[in-house]
């Protein structure tokens, strides 16, 4: 709902110029929402490899813990 209100409040047109390709007229609200969405997607793409590596590391650690839990404990000497 807030997105629709924002888009309707910012209906003025602006010229967006993409250097080698020329320009295009778009509504200000659409330009702002598009920039936010593009930034979100780019941030997600930069963060995704880090997230995947952390997930793999956690799986390896859980597997190691499971192996150590099934391994019989060493006998301890009591005096």
Please sum up the structure shown.
This protein is an alpha+beta fold and 79 residues long.
What structural class results from the helix and strand content?
alpha+beta
Task: Give a count of the beta strands, DSSP E runs of length 2 or more.
Answer: 2
Most strands sheet: 2 strands, antiparallel
Strand order of the largest sheet: 1-2
Low-pLDDT stretches are none
Q: What is the typical, i.e. mean, pLDDT?
A: 89
Can you tell me the overall shape?
Answer: rod-shaped
Which band does the percent of strand residues land in?
15-25%
Number of structurally distinct domains: 1
Along the chain, the helix and strand elements come as HEEH
Determine Rg (CA atoms, Å): 27 Å
Measured between the Cα atoms of the first and last residue, the distance is: 73 Å
């Amino acid at each position: 709902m807030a997105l629709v209100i924002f888009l309707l409040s910012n209906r003025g047109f602006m010229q967006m110029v993409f250097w080698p390709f020329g320009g295009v007229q778009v509504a200000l609200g659409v330009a702002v929402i598009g920039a936010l969405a593009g930034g979100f997607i780019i941030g997600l793409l930069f963060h995704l490899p880090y997230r995947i590596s952390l997930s793999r590391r956690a799986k390896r650690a859980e597997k190691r813990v499971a192996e150590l839990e099934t391994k019989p404990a060493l006998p301890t000497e009591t005096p």
